[in-house]
């Protein structure tokens, strides 16, 4: 069972690199194989929504982390095997893609060496100490003990083979048993991902969240921070059935968007069964996770920013109407319209969200006046990111506090930059 999400959320959380900006994926990618990289990407695109599956994956990775396991297969050998096996597919004319005699010889030798290494790993490696992988370990062990592979284990890895032996093994590997060889490679790619993420957890001191069943309504993060920041400020926030909605306020530059990304990224990554950038975390499994942080205008259909926002809210309403347990985040809800409509819309939608207590919502807004009307709902909590004034210079703590702020320092910043003087008197040389 997979967590429901969408491309807007993936873009908001910057999961993948874009132009010169690295993504969250890059932080976790310490893989040794191209296949491992591809598997890792798929895991990022398809988080889990099943407690047992999340707990199993987290258990595998945390054990590899505690054992400080090193990837047991040589990257160069795997490159050779991958290239060799990629030519096992037939062309449209029914013929196999051509490989030179040397490439076939290297490929055969590589597969033999790899199968020996895999057998040693499943029989003697750290995988034996990971009960969550016992089924996979047994499957690969049975596969390697198939009669077809008996001659392989009579060979010494890297030993020189006769032309006849190379030809026979080539037929075995790229034709008769190619699906089994590919299954071995898929097993290796999974192991590559688990060990890669485990090493990242150790290096960065990421923690493994505690997973709770669906609809238990708990989301507690202590010391959460954004993993891309060099000197992050950590924050705490707890949500549950008694506080299923958070109304977040704060001046521009106070750190709202960074906090929102930190919090929602941790929840997304936790649903992958991966370690997160926090001191501690408990979360109930959700059906879906949707964020709206950088919502673009849809000029292709002639839609204004406000109308795109309305369509986004409509999509959330449709998902919620199906009884799903969702985490929904809106950064600056209805920023695309006038203050009066934004105020009324924010109050109405936030009130409606508060009625969906199996889901959780964070709404950030500059419309601090909406807070008075929202206080009517007991399950709406209020937090803000403060601005401290040092004379005429605003300073930001980036530390979450309870309540609502009316900090407005836009004009102070405008004056500090001398914009009005420049417009009035011209730029001084």
TrEMBL record:
Coiled coil: none annotated. GO terms for biological process: mismatch repair. It holds the Pfam family MutS_V. The keyword Cell division does not apply. Keywords: ATP-binding, DNA-binding, Nucleotide-binding. The keyword Nucleotide-binding applies. SMART domains: MUTSac. Residues 243-424 form the DNA mismatch repair proteins mutS family domain. InterPro entries: DNA_mismatch_repair_MutS_C, DNA_mismatch_repair_MutS_sf, MutS, P-loop_NTPase. GO terms for molecular function: ATP binding; ATP-dependent DNA damage sensor activity; mismatched DNA binding. It comes from the Bacteria. This is MutS-like protein.
């Amino acid at each position: 069972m997979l967590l429901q999400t969408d491309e807007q959320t993936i873009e908001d959380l910057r999961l993948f690199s874009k132009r010169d900006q690295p993504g969250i994926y890059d932080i976790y990618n310490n893989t040794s194989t191209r296949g491992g990289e591809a598997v890792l990407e798929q895991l990022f695109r398809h988080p889990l929504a099943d407690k047992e599956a999340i707990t199993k994956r987290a258990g595998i990775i945390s054990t590899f982390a505690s054992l400080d396991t090193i990837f047991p297969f040589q990257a160069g050998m795997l490159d050779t095997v991958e290239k060799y096996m990629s030519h096992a597919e037939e062309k449209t004319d029914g013929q196999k893609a051509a490989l030179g005699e040397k490439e076939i010889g290297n490929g055969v030798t590589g597969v033999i060496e790899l199968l020996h290494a895999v057998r040693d790993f499943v029989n003697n490696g750290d995988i034996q100490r990971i009960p969550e992988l016992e089924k996979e370990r047994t499957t690969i062990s049975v596969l390697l003990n198939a009669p077809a592979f008996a001659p392989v284990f009579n060979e010494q890895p890297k030993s020189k083979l006769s032309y006849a032996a190379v030809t026979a093994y080539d037929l075995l590997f790229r034709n008769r048993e190619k699906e089994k060889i590919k299954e071995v490679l898929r097993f290796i790619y999974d192991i590559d991902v688990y060990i890669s993420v485990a090493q990242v957890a150790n290096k960065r001191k990421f923690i493994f969240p505690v997973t709770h069943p669906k609809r238990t309504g708990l989301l507690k993060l202590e010391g959460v921070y954004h993993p891309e920041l060099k000197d992050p400020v950590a924050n705490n926030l707890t949500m549950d059935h008694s506080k299923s909605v958070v109304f977040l306020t704060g001046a521009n530059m106070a750190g709202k968007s960074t906090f929102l990304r930190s919090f929602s990224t941790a929840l997304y990554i936790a649903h992958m069964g991966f370690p997160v950038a926090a001191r501690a975390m408990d979360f109930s499994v959700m059906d879906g996770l949707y964020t709206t942080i950088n919502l673009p205008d849809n000029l292709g259909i002639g839609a204004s920013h406000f109308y795109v926002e309305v369509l986004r809210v409509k999509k959330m309403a449709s998902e919620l109407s199906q009884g799903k347990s969702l985490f929904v985040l809106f950064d600056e809800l209805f920023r695309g319209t006038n203050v009066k409509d934004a105020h009324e819309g924010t109050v109405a939608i936030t009130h409606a969200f508060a009625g969906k207590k199996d889901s959780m919502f964070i709404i950030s807004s500059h419309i601090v006046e909406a807070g008075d009307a929202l206080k009517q709902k007991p399950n709406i909590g209020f937090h803000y990111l403060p601005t401290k004034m040092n004379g005429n210079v605003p300073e930001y703590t980036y530390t979450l506090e309870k309540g609502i702020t009316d900090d407005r320092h836009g004009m102070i910043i405008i004056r500090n930059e001398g914009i009005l003087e420049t417009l009035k008197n011209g730029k001084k040389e």
